[in-house]
Write a structure and sequence with these properties.
With about 160 residues, the chain is mainly α. The protein contains six helices and no strands. The chain starts with 14 loop residues before the first helix and ends in a 5-residue tail after the last helix.
Length: about 160
C-alpha cells in the first residue's frame, strides 16, 4: 500500500457511508411507492369526489374548511416528505455530476447501479450500460469507483463530518 494511501471504504460495512448506501439501495422502491401512492390518491379523489385533487383542495380552501388531523392531511404529508427526500438525493447527485472532477462517470455509475427506473440484472449489465455512455472500466474498477461515488455523494448529503 502506498505511504499516504488510505484503504478503500467498504460502503456495506462502514457506518459513515452506510446511510447513503442504504438510501441508494432503497431509492427505486421509494420512487415506485411514491408514484403508486400519488396515483392511488388521485384515483380515489376522482371516484369519491368526481374531480382532481387540485380542484378539490381549491374548493376546500375557498370554503374555508380545515383539513388538520384528517387522513387526507396525513397522506399528503407522507407523500410530501417522501418527495422532498427524493429531491434532496436528486439534487446531491446533480451537484456531484456537475462539480466533481469524476462527476459524469460517478453519475452514470450510480444511475445504472441504483437510480435508473429499471434495475440492471448484475454488475456486468451495469458495465455494458456504462460502455454505451463511453465509460469503459473493468469489474474491479467498477466496484472501486462505485464506492468512491457513494463516498462523494455521502459527503454532499451528510457533510464532510461523515468522513
Amino acid at each position: 500500500m502506498a505511504k499516504n494511501k488510505l484503504p478503500a471504504a467498504d460502503v456495506t460495512e462502514d457506518p459513515h457511508y452506510h446511510d447513503t448506501w442504504t438510501l441508494l439501495r432503497k431509492y427505486r422502491d421509494v420512487v415506485w411507492s411514491l408514484e403508486v401512492s400519488v396515483r392511488q390518491v388521485r384515483n380515489r379523489f376522482r371516484i369519491d369526489y368526481g374531480k382532481t385533487i387540485e380542484d378539490f383542495l381549491e374548493s376546500v380552501y375557498l370554503a374555508g374548511a380545515d383539513l388538520s388531523g384528517t387522513e387526507l392531511e396525513h397522506q399528503a404529508k407522507c407523500i410530501e416528505q417522501s418527495h422532498k427526500m427524493l429531491c434532496l438525493v436528486d439534487s446531491a447527485v446533480d451537484l456531484m455530476r456537475a462539480k466533481h472532477k469524476n462527476g459524469e462517470e460517478f453519475y452514470w455509475l450510480l444511475y445504472y447501479a441504483y437510480l435508473s427506473p429499471q434495475q440492471c440484472e448484475n454488475a456486468g449489465a451495469i458495465l455494458q450500460s456504462l460502455e454505451s455512455k463511453g465509460i469503459s472500466i473493468s469489474l474491479r474498477t467498477y466496484y472501486v469507483h462505485r464506492d468512491e461515488a457513494i463516498e462523494v455523494l455521502s459527503s454532499i448529503l451528510w457533510g464532510y463530518t461523515s468522513q
